[in-house]
Input
Amino acid sequence: MKSLATSLGAVFLMIGASSASATDFEAIEARLSDLVPDMDQVMISETPIPGVMQVRIGGDIVYISEDGRYLMQGRLIDMETQADLTDAAQSVLRREQLQELDRGELVSFGNDDADYEVLVFTDPDCGYCRRLHQQMDEYEEAGIKISYLAFPRAGVGSQTYDKLVSVWCAEDRQGAMDVAKAGQTPTPETCDNPVTEQYNMGQSLGVTGTPSIMTFNGDIIPGYVPPERLRERLDALNGDDS
Output
């Protein structure tokens, strides 16, 4: 998105008084048509701010004045409700991508009938990832199923990447993950595996560190969260205040 902002020049926010019209959408589309190769990736919608439109370009969210002249990158926060409107929009994007996941390519721990299932982008050489894994029984007792996706922080081709490939290629993936999370090296294995694909997905979903916890609805719960606190967060997201 940096190239788009650069093409439009300085970043400003213009707030008008009129509501969006078909002409507003056409003005924005006309401005973007020279900058975005595939306009099918562009979705324009209104925001609560008069004169400011939300534009989704692929996996990115930006804001543009209704005449298409000014572009703003950043987060849109409702100061009265403390709602992060940008994250809400991005959660829709994350949910769409997560629906495409092949559950057979996850390494899961916990009961299939658990109250909640969360996705965890993980790196076996991450200290807090190991701490989370050590409490797997407690997550299960809290009614949470943990399903791992691979996210080698050092990137594709690193030693950690190779460990994760060995985990995903092992006949017993859970056992190999236990070995890796204990700071040891699982038996080297190679096969057709989803490690690179999951790593790339994590990056596109905004994962920058591990562990990164995510719900299938696209909600991000960053960092390590102890079992009981994670249960509280999930209950709150589910609208259960009991």
Notes: The chain has two domains: 2-85, 105-237. The domain at 2-85 is CATH 3.10.450.70 (Nuclear Transport Factor 2; Chain: A,). The CA atoms of residues 62 and 74 lie 7 Å apart.
